[in-house]
Write a structure and sequence with these properties.
heterodimer; A: 251 residues; alpha/beta; Rossmann fold; 2 domains; six-stranded mixed sheet; 10 helices; B: mainly alpha; 0% strand
Chain lengths: 251, 570
């Protein structure tokens, strides 16, 4: 479970995240949508313990991140949007290292690492240095590393960027099966189709504030007028894309 | 150089200063890096910088004043010293330009934009050459400034002297920048693309080793021992003759010294400016001919090959009692180090440095006439200072970049249940243990060669151990305070602003420890000569003070580094 209470983050005088209250229960896949610069990545990085909140609290699996950060982080797997990893480690060494950070090693971890790499078609690359991996392969390795220590909560920033269609499909299945087993996933995405088909509930964030939260049906009602998620998103975030595009091209 | 397109319309061609403008704007926006604690860093910079400058200036000023007092050969000695400084700077500059040019011409992130844009080849060369010069030369100049100032003060250079010095120094900096960039361009084109970065670093290091060895062949210590020459005439003729008449270092030294002696000569300046212009033209032609091909090669993907085995098996097993997390952290550090050629190739340079150092000690004239009991005991002390400098430069190469290299992967460490203290201490031990082993071997070997007393041996071993811990602590602390997270080239991290600060702080630390210990050692040696007992309070004060300072320099920087890493938001 993820609980955010009055979560706020200021960068100087700019408020990136403004007093967010949110609860993502066990067994739920929660989507986080919003325009660029709305505060999605800042929120997720605060949940991952990378950024310090200006005020408010974060609980992961019932543990307060500010009070006992190490215990809270032990329950978490984080997948960032940019796949930066140690270039001079091999894929399997990287997975072993990540498991080690969570105090886990041994045959079970080796087996799990191999299974995860095989799932994403990386087994042939297991003993190659990461520096020879493509962007998508690095992303797959990072996703594997987030699952290696069996976390209770997974926080994902833009999971589909750089993935081929097959890997994207595998990831969707993996996420669904993972939450079916009672775990929690919170993910941000710009791919509305992914959010629509995958997420149990969705929040739309704009200028650091949550504009709407609920199932697709709930959001449709709030947006008054129905339509697909794209229509709802544009209505709720006040985008007038078509007219502006024409204006810009004529300018 | 605007060209014409197919339709006869002039093609856009952004100017040189437009290409460099992002660098100026970035530099103006954050002169000391992006941090909340700007004032603290500024104070640290000003204090350490001022102490270092005063130290170098004071030392040189005293030495030059002494030279001035020697009739006939005093001015010659001063000129020789300046020549030696410039020749060392020239070697360092060529090397640092080779390393920097790899980043600025081939790896920099702005290159995709510039190469894809309608940027004229000559302007790209000019912009990147200026960028390379600035990056590789600023630190050298920071060190050279107090030296040149001391010359100006001692020889009363007058108010025009700064202009003369700048006039000599600017072409002196441009020549190695053009040469270094050209060498990099050739290497990137010659070697297989996948290995370019690695091979380049090995070659740069071998070249550095060559420069050090060459410097040894010049045998500068001969100048300090005129009695070694057959006659005074021979000594003076050696002093008067140029060390290397074909090198820009000699011209720069001559240009400055002739002005200071009141007999200004223009020839050295002509030589400097014309050579700088010629190397730049030559470099530009080479750039036009080879750059496109080299740039394309340098973009190809990295190395796939990897050697498995010994490390994971044996070291991993040996580290098991310390827990999974610590074991994996240490293993990771070691793997990254040994697989990154830019890192371990510097070991070659290190070996040469150590060999040259031990040889120097071996050939020191420590026996015979004029060598007193005091001198024989003071030299091991000087040995400690030099060993301290060697350790500081190694720490700057290997321990200091540790935090910066972690930059892009901090998301992983920060989101995992890893205490930053554990990360820093694992980095501390991985760096310190080999450093300590080297320090002990170095000091023990040289002390045996020097045949020091057992008291001096004990003092040396104790001091170098404390110093190693302190220098490693400082390296980690400065690494966390002045990280370079976004660098494309690991070899550049030690020569960054933080690296310079570390070297200055190490010099101050070594100086403090030695000054504190000098008194009790003098006391002890004196007492032994007079066959009395040394004053125990002096011993406690000196050695106790040195120990306290070393311990503080070990723990305080690491504490600061831990706090800084916890606060870091990346």
């Amino acid at each position: 479970m993820i609980e955010l209470r009055q979560l706020k983050k200021n960068y100087g005088s700019f408020t990136a995240v403004d007093s967010i209250d949110l609860t993502v229960p066990d067994g739920e896949l929660f989507g986080f949508l919003g325009p660029n610069g709305a505060g999605k990545t800042t929120t997720l990085r605060m949940i991952a313990g990378i950024l310090q909140p200006t005020s408010g609290s974060i609980h992961l699996a019932g543990i307060d991140l500010a009070v006992d950060p190490l215990a809270a982080k032990a329950k978490l797997g984080f997948i960032p949007d940019r796949p930066f990893i140690y270039e001079k480690l091999t894929g399997s060494e990287f997975l072993r290292f990540v498991a080690g950070l969570y105090g886990q090693d041994g045959d079970k971890i080796e087996h799990r690492g191999r299974e995860l790499m095989a799932l994403f078609d990386l087994e042939e690359w297991a003993d190659e240095l990461v520096e020879s991996y493509s962007h998508g392969m690095r992303q797959k390795l990072i996703i594997s590393s987030a699952f290696i220590h069996r976390p209770e909560v997974i926080v994902v920033d833009e999971p589909m960027v750089g993935l081929d269609p097959k890997a994207a499909r595998i990831l969707k299945d993996l996420f669904r099966e993972y939450v079916r087993r009672g775990h929690t996933i919170m993910m941000s995405t710009h791919t509305l189709e992914v959010a629509e088909t995958l997420c149990d509930r969705i929040a739309i964030i704009q200028q650091g504030k949550i504009r709407a939260v609920g199932t697709i049906e709930d959001l449709r009602e709030q947006a008054t007028g129905g339509g697909g998620l794209e229509e709802i998103f544009l209505k709720l975030t006040g985008e007038r894309a078509a007219r502006e595009t024409m204006d810009v091209l004529d300018a | 150089m605007p060209r014409s397109g197919d339709r006869g319309e002039p093609l856009p061609s952004p100017g040189l200063f437009h290409l460099l403008s992002p660098k100026f704007i970035s530099a103006k926006a954050r002169p000391l890096g992006k941090t909340e604690n700007k004032s603290g860093r500024l104070i640290a910079f000003v204090v350490i910088g001022a102490v270092f400058w005063v130290f170098v200036f004071g030392l040189l000023y005293r030495l030059l004043k002494y030279f001035r007092g020697i009739p006939e050969i005093g001015a010659l000695l001063a000129a020789k010293l300046l020549g030696l400084m410039f020749i060392s700077l020239f070697g360092i500059l060529i090397l640092s330009n080779v390393v920097t040019a790899l980043s600025s011409f081939f790896l920099a992130k702005d290159l995709d934009l510039l190469v894809a844009g309608p940027v004229d080849w000559l302007r790209l060369y000019g912009a990147k050459l200026l960028e390379t010069t600035a990056h590789s030369s600023w630190m050298v100049m920071l060190v050279a400034t107090p030296v040149l100032t001391a010359y100006g003060f001692t020889y009363k250079g007058g108010f025009l002297y700064p202009l003369v010095a700048i006039g000599a120094v600017i072409p002196f900096l441009l020549i190695p920048a053009a040469i270094g960039s050209a060498i990099t361009l050739l290497l990137v084109n010659i070697f297989p693309a996948r290995r370019t970065r690695d091979i380049l670093s090995v070659i740069a290091v071998l070249a550095a080793a060559g420069v050090v060895l060459l410097f040894r062949l010049v045998r500068p210590e001969r100048l300090a021992r005129p009695e070694g020459f057959r006659s005074l005439v021979e000594f003076i003729s050696l002093l008067r003759g140029p060390t290397s008449p074909w090198l820009p270092s000699e011209w720069a030294a001559q240009g400055i010294m002739t002005w200071l002696r009141g007999e200004p000569e223009l020839l050295p300046f002509y030589l400097l400016v014309s050579t700088a212009a010629a190397t730049i033209v030559f470099g530009a032609l080479l750039h036009r001919w080879l750059y496109d091909r080299g740039f394309s090669k340098s973009q190809e993907s990295g190395e796939r090959w990897v050697r498995q085995g010994v490390l994971g098996k044996y070291v991993g097993r040996a580290l098991s009692p310390w827990g999974v997390m610590r074991r994996e952290l240490v293993l990771k550090e070691m793997r990254l180090f040994f697989r990154d050629t830019t890192q371990w190739s510097q070991l070659i340079l290190l070996t040469v440095l150590v060999v040259v150092y031990v040889f120097n000690i071996k050939f020191l004239p420590l026996r015979g006439e004029g060598v007193t009991f005091f001198l024989a005991n003071v030299i091991p002390f000087v040995n400690l200072i030099l060993a301290g400098f060697v350790l500081a430069s190694i720490a700057a190469r290997f321990i200091f970049p540790g935090i910066s290299l972690e930059g892009r992967t901090l998301w992983l460490l920060r989101s995992s249940p890893l205490e930053m203290r554990q990360l820093l201490w694992s980095k501390f031990w991985v760096g310190t243990i080999p450093l300590l082993a080297l320090a002990l071997v170095l000091v023990f070997a040289t002390d045996v060669l020097l045949q020091v007393s057992s008291f001096m041996m004990a003092v040396s071993i104790f001091t170098i151990t404390m110093m190693t811990f302190a220098i490693a602590g400082l390296a980690l602390g400065f690494g966390a305070l002045f990280p370079k997270f976004n660098t494309e080239n690991a070899a550049q991290i030690p020569t960054s602003f933080g690296g310079l600060m570390l070297m200055m702080a190490s010099v101050v630390l070594i100086g403090l420890v030695i000054v504190l210990e000098a008194r009790p050692v003098y006391e002890y040696v004196g007492a032994r000569m007079l066959k009395t007992d040394p004053d125990p309070s002096q011993m406690w004060l000196g050695f106790g003070g040195a120990t306290l300072i070393s311990l503080a320099a070990t723990f305080v920087p690491i504490r600061i580094a831990v706090r800084r890493m916890r606060e870091l938001e990346r």
